[in-house]
Amino acid sequence: MIFTQVKTLLARLHDDENGDIPVGPILVIGLVVIPLVIAIMVFGEELVKLFKRKWGEIQGEEGKISF
After folding, report:
1. Across the chain, what does the average pLDDT equal?
2. What are the 10-residue block averages of pLDDT along the chain, 67 residues in total?
3. pTM score, whole prediction
4. Is residue 49 classed as helix, strand or coil in its secondary structure?
5. Residue 62 gets which letter from DSSP?
6. Whether 26 contacts 34, CB under 8 Å
7. Cys bridge to 60: 2, 12, 56, 66, which one at CB 3.0-4.6 A?
8. Who's near 41: CB < 8 A, 6+ residues apart?
9. Share in percent of the chain as helix, strand, coil (round to 5)
10. Any idea what DSSP says for residue 67?
11. In sequence order, what are the residues at sequence separation of 6 or more whose Cβ sits closer than 8 angstroms to the Cβ of residue 60?
């Protein structure tokens, strides 16, 4: 009698999926977003200088866009 009740309770707990969370978004955050944020924090000023220099090269001396 008690064994059957415990078995039933364990089966219901095993089948309960209310607390499941998707693993995909956690992996994206852990493997992509966090390293990207760290890289931006470390190399932020150099990246800004690089983009400004490249944008100046694209615009040319007269301010016109030249490819």
Report:
1. 81
2. 82 68 82 91 93 88 59
3. 0.45
4. helix
5. T
6. no
7. 66
8. none
9. 75, 0, 25
10. -
11. 66
